[in-house]
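Researcher: Next sequence.
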Amino acid sequence: MNVSTRMTRLAACLGAVALAAGCATGEMGQGGRTAVGAGTGAALGAGLGALIGDSSRAAAIGAGIGAVAGGIAGYNWSGVKNDVEQSGAASLGVDVTEMPDGTLRVNIPSNVSFDTGKYDLKPELTPVLDSVARALVQHPELRAKAIGHTDSTGTAQVNQTLSVNRANAVTNYLNARGVDRSRLMSEGRGPNNPVADNSTAEGRAMNRRVELYLYAVQQ
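Model: Next structure:
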């Protein structure tokens, strides 16, 4: 793709994002925060795909879960993020990151979440999930979605089922800690969204994960 073509596609991308944002925004009325709809994240992901030549990877980078559920732009995650980090997340390798689409991602690696081929939660992870459950109970505007991922070894069917079961294990735990089922979602993506090279042991370990996204909705 030459420079001229890239610039043309970039302009189209920015136009699509602006249009989506304009169609999807609305004032909350308190604090001046704005509700951003699903279209913005989806458009951004599609535009990145046009630029880097990998639409599925770009969608994961640009949209997060924005294409599934809108969030509140500029939501203050500092208290929730601090509570999750203080629960021992960092020492376990659990990464807590504010995403471009307004969500808070809690990335749970396989070494502290599940044994190989299993979907029973490891005990060392429960303090982290307890802190997430507390945040959800204390903040009724928050929702959560767990997305399970696997590496590329094994059959597609086995990996898909495993990724769904692992995502469900996380949301089931949160539900058992008092979070209403209507505020929880889960999804399995098997090996379809790798973040590292599946040809190496280190890369496969990084790809075996559950991503737990927290997002706020307009009340």
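Model: The radius of gyration is 18 Å. The first strand starts at residue 26 and ends at 27.
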